[in-house]
User: What shape does this take?
Amino acid sequence: MVKVEFLGPIGREPVEMEASSLKDVAKKLKEDKELASWLDKCAVALNDTMVNDLNTPLKDGDRVSILPPVCGG
Amino acid sequence: MEIEYLFYLLFVVVNMELYNGPLEVKEIFSRWLDDEAESNYGAYIPFVGTIRAEDGIEALSFDIYEPVLQKWFNEWQERAKALGAVVKMAHAIGDVPVHTSSYVSAVFSPKRRVALELIDEFVEDFKANAPIWKYDVKDGKRIYAEDRSTAMSGAGLLA
Assistant: This one.
């Protein structure tokens, strides 16, 4: 199982899912229409490191964070 | 080796400061100045971000994801170090009323040119890639400042 958490304004509780890569996570999140509408503008971190490859493999206990558009300062 | 690594972590964490509510700008800048008084830097360039009264807001409010922010900041520390410089920053969490400060940063460097260029790049990259979310506070309600926010690099990976 991996844990997916939604940061800032997305305002959703974390979910746990079976996923062997980020591709699987994408597929599952897209089943939720409201979440799907966030995905094109969100960046992704795996265990607090930013990632850019959809084929990134996942293992049991990994934590995937979904980061919406930012505006510090 | 382990001791050295721990020391490094402590050193880095000391330089990024997060506070609940508005920043004590004068205290922070004067402390940073004192901290580097004997470091032989020729230039110290501070930046202050102040909440402006506009569109009827009472305050801005901020969420921060600290683990990723710390990594982003550590990379900037390394970049500054390679130029013989130091970057510092402090940011507010939660509500920050108008006319108070939510963000300060600074660069110390041996000569002015490096500091002038670095403060520009550092503050701009901060706006684009630091994992911080901003909300307008109106009538006590928090409204995500979506139209002023920027998608981080790599956004859309899961779309």
Residues 2-67 of chain A form a domain with the Ubiquitin-like (UB roll) fold (CATH 3.10.20.30). Strands of chain A lie at 2-6, 15-17, 43-46, 49-51, 63-67.
